[in-house]
Amino acid sequence: MSSPNDAVPRDNATPWLDTAVGYALRRAQMKMFQHLVDSLASYDLRPAQFTALVILEQEPGLMQADLARRLAIEPPQLVLLLNKLERQGLAERVRGTQDRRAYALHLTDQGRALVGELKERAAASDRAASASLDDAERAELLRLLRKLNGDLG
Amino acid sequence: MSSPNDAVPRDNATPWLDTAVGYALRRAQMKMFQHLVDSLASYDLRPAQFTALVILEQEPGLMQADLARRLAIEPPQLVLLLNKLERQGLAERVRGTQDRRAYALHLTDQGRALVGELKERAAASDRAASASLDDAERAELLRLLRKLNGDLG
DNA sequence: TATTGTTATACTCTATAACTATA
DNA sequence: TATAGTTATAGAGTATAACAATA
Questions:
Q1: What's the CATH fold of domain B16-148?
Q2: Which of A118, A135, B1, B115 has the CA that lies 20 to 30 A from A76?
């Protein structure tokens, strides 16, 4: 017999799925993701579009290929995402001065004005969708997830 | 200013994304899910198909609508999933005796023989994809995720 | 008339290859 | 010849409506 974590007492009455981190992770992610989708719907933004705005606020001037890598999407997908953000007046492509193939990506004034409100919305969604945890548990969950992801800090 | 968890000291130098449980959760889930996809690829099984086998092992005789609900997929998707498991000789539909519209779902002998090996594979994938956590941390992560999901126990 | 499972269909997401314009 | 971005296209995954058989 085998279970995902041998530190968990292996009770034969415990369903296998209840011992799998990946299964619990998937269900948690679906729940929180859907909550965020609903929270951003009135802005006509999807989670990836919101994340792009947050990254561009923190690192203005990024190239498209770099932003695509940050979002873990392929360049062709990023084209569509950026087209939408430009149509919404939230971000813009600025032709590179040195390399005229590349674009430097920036938020517009409107985008900069909106992103703070979006972060508050998303933060509220984060808290609401994990309301069964207290603040200390949420902080510990975040720490463990970031360690799993190989993040520093 | 706002962050997803007010118990986390709100350092203005900390990028907002690093404070969001949902973002860390999504990245962790993608990493573990992809690892499982690779681990099951040689069996020509996807995670949802594997999960269906595990559920049917534990609860033989389920109806399709019930299994669909467990997997959080729509009935039409489950039809295709079951067709594939039947083609692979791992599960079968048995016409209900009382209600002849419904099917009782069961593993075949071959399915029962395989599911133990699959669970070991999946458990190894679970551990490998979260190798940056020690056993105590993995157990605590599982506990917090299950609490977030509203699971009992 | 309602329910179980199925089919048909469309919509989203994602991945790949081929194209353009610069370098 | 290589690279940044784009276009075109096709493959999954997912959701909805309509249908057949049974209750």
A1: Arc Repressor Mutant, subunit A (1.10.10)
A2: A118
pLDDT tens, position by position, B75-129: 999 999 999 999 999 999 999 889 999 999 999 999 999 999 999 999 999 999 9
Indicate yes or no: CB of A27 within 8 angstroms of CB of B149.
Answer: yes
pLDDT of residue B12: 67
Phi/psi for A91 (5° steps) reads: -140, 165
Cα B100 to Cα B63, B104, B115: the distances in Å are 12, 10, 28
Asked whether strand D has any atom less than 7 Å from the CB of A102, the reply is yes
Residue A81: band (very low, low, confident or very high) from pLDDT cuts 50, 70, 90: very high
Q: Residue A94 CB closer than 7 angstroms to strand D?
A: no
- Vertex B114 angle, CA B111 and B116, to 5°: 120
The CATH topology of domain A16-126 is Arc Repressor Mutant, subunit A (1.10.10)
Task: Kindly tell me the burial class for residue A7, based on how many C-beta atoms sit within 10 Å of its own C-beta (0-12, 13-18, 19 or more).
Answer: middle
Please tell me what DSSP assigns to residue B132: T
With contact defined as beta carbons under 8 Å apart, do B4 and B22 qualify? yes
H or E stretch including B83?
A: helix B75-87
Q: Which two tokens stand for residue B74?
A: 């729509």
